[in-house]
Amino acid sequence: MYTQKIVSLLPSATEIVCALGLEYNLVGRSHECDYPDSIKHLPVCSEANFPDNLSSLAIDVKVKEILADALSVYTVNREVIKQLAPDVVITQAQCEVCAVSLTEVEQALENYLDKQAHIVSLQPNSLDDIFKDIETVAAALNVKAAGAALLEDLQQRVDIVRHKLKFAEIKPTVACIEWLEPMMLSGNWIPQLIEIAGGVSILTDPGKHSPYVQWEQIRLADPDILVVMPCGFSIQRTLKEIDILLKRPGFTEMKAVKNNRVYIADGNQYLNRPGPRIVDSVEILAEIINPKQFIFGYEGDGWIKFSV
Hints:
Elements: E1 6-8, H1 11-19, E2 26-29, E3 46-48, H2 56-68, E4 74-76, H3 78-84, E5 88-92, H4 102-109, E6 118-122, H5 127-140, H6 144-164, E7 173-179, E8 184-185, H7 190-196, E9 200-201, H8 215-221, E10 225-228, H9 235-239, H10 243-246, H11 255-258, E11 262-265, H12 267-271, H13 278-289, E12 303-305
Parallel strand pairs: 1-2, 1-5, 5-6, 7-9, 7-10, 10-11
Antiparallel strand pairs: 3-4, 7-8, 11-12
């Protein structure tokens, strides 16, 4: 029986493939694919066109310069992919800043591989989209039954949170900060996850891209809870730049600060990664927003309370 060879250029897609029981079909990964640990030995098929030790502001400036010059934020290593001879290549069309894009993959591989690879492109903007992407990958890899079983498990976990909060009358307002400088709030699927976890997202619309906002807008909205979760940052990486937030005018006077409800979450591994662990992210937000109702055990790994 022939085994499909898969190259994943997207961390969330790598997690989907593994959750479907096809980890050993993976022959290549992106430079950002880091979960599970057992895939880190795979050949790396992409790289970022900027250093990884830049500050939030420097990253933003560099990315905008690259895009303004009509260049790519990432490079696809087509020689490596050619040698791997994949049957399927998985990428995304959701965000040209977050990972290798569909256009980049098509341009890199067009008429270059010795055999035609099936390119699967994911474009999630909501929780439903993430679940549909899992279904899409399962269908492309001929494991529809495994996809259905995975989705049933994920949906049950979401339903448990929803059911427990069904009659909750108090819904705190929440600001999830996706980038520190310039300031961005988390859009796409995050407002929906906040709603499931029993909160109300401020200054964002479900299913729409994360907006740039002025600090004054957040300060005036004065949310009950602040969650700092920059895209691609671990908790430790965020702590290195937390002073950007602490120095904002009026920060210490905010409700969330006075009530000790400021949190740092791992945006890289959880909330900003639209794969199976997006349901872990629902549970993380449930722990943060409703700590009396939920203890899933993510504190310390997925999130920490930050005392000012």
